[in-house]
Design brief:
Elements lengths: L1 E6 L2 E6 L1 E6 L5 E6 L6 E2 L3 E3 L2 E3 L1 H4 L10 H17 L12 H27 L13
Antiparallel strand pairs: 1-2, 3-4, 4-5, 6-7
Helix pairs in contact: 2-3
């Protein structure tokens, strides 16, 4: 397969092989063959003027560049949005809604506690835990 088109840094014309593999339960599954590493991949990315797999392009997930505090804050925010609904997605539905909401609330509480503990450590590197209202 040849990918050609106008990209932000110029025109591209690159050949990418596609491999069809039989599925164990019938049918087939298609994979790209990365032009850089020659390995199978389901998705190819455009970066640095060429297409290639995630490994070949040296791309990372968002959380891989975050510190522990940012990860904890992100986790708490994601759980809050699942509970309250955001961006047109309603809160949990279905027959097990009560259990799902309870589980999400417990997970959100644990994530918030982790975030606040890490924030306290940054604020007071001695590791001394204090409660609001107490004198330091």
């Amino acid at each position: 397969m040849t990918i050609s088109g106008d990209m932000p840094n110029g025109a591209i014309n690159q050949h990418v092989a596609v491999e069809m593999v039989a599925s164990p339960f019938g049918g087939h599954r298609c994979y790209f063959i990365c032009p850089v590493t020659a390995r199978r991949c389901e998705v190819i990315y455009y970066a640095g003027g060429r297409f290639g797999s995630r490994e070949a392009q040296r791309l990372s997930y968002t959380v891989q560049g975050m510190n522990e505090l940012s990860r904890a804050r992100r986790k708490a925010a994601k759980l809050r949005s699942r509970l309250c609904g955001s961006g047109g997605h309603p809160r949990p539905r279905g027959g097990n809604r009560i259990d799902t909401v309870r589980r999400l609330r417990e997970a959100e509480y644990a994530a918030k506690t982790l975030y606040l503990d890490q924030l306290r450590v940054l604020a007071d590197p001695s590791g001394f835990r204090w409660m609001p209202g107490e004198s330091r």
